[in-house]
Structure formats: structure tokens, C-alpha cells
Amino acid sequence: MSGTEKTKAQAEQAKGKAKEVLGRAVGNERMTAEGHADQAKGNARQAKEDVKDAFRH
Q1: Measured between alpha carbons, how far is residue 5 from residues 8, 52, 56 in Å?
Q2: C-alpha torsion 4→10→12→18, nearest 10
Q3: Fewer CB atoms near the end CB (10 Å): N or C, the chain?
């Protein structure tokens, strides 16, 4: 996995987790859902890079 894409995926996952936790803490369902979506995007980006890496080796 390229360094920048790996970093972007991890940052997106962390941002999503923080948003989800904050949304739960304040009772904001929309923020919780956005956080969950951000985590899913980060997971998808990481999976895409893992597939690319598998074909490189």
C-alpha cells in the first residue's frame, strides 16, 4: 500500500470514529451516522489499496 493512501485511509477511519463517538456523546444521530460513513469510506480505501498491493506482488 502506498504511504499516502494508507495514511489517508487511516486518517479517514480515525476522523469517522471521533465523529461517531462525539455524535453518540451529544445524542446527535446525524453526526453518528456521518462518522460511521467516514469509517466505511476509510475501510473501502484501505481494502482497495490492499487489493492493488496483492496484484503487485
Answers
A1: 5, 11, 15
A2: -150
A3: C
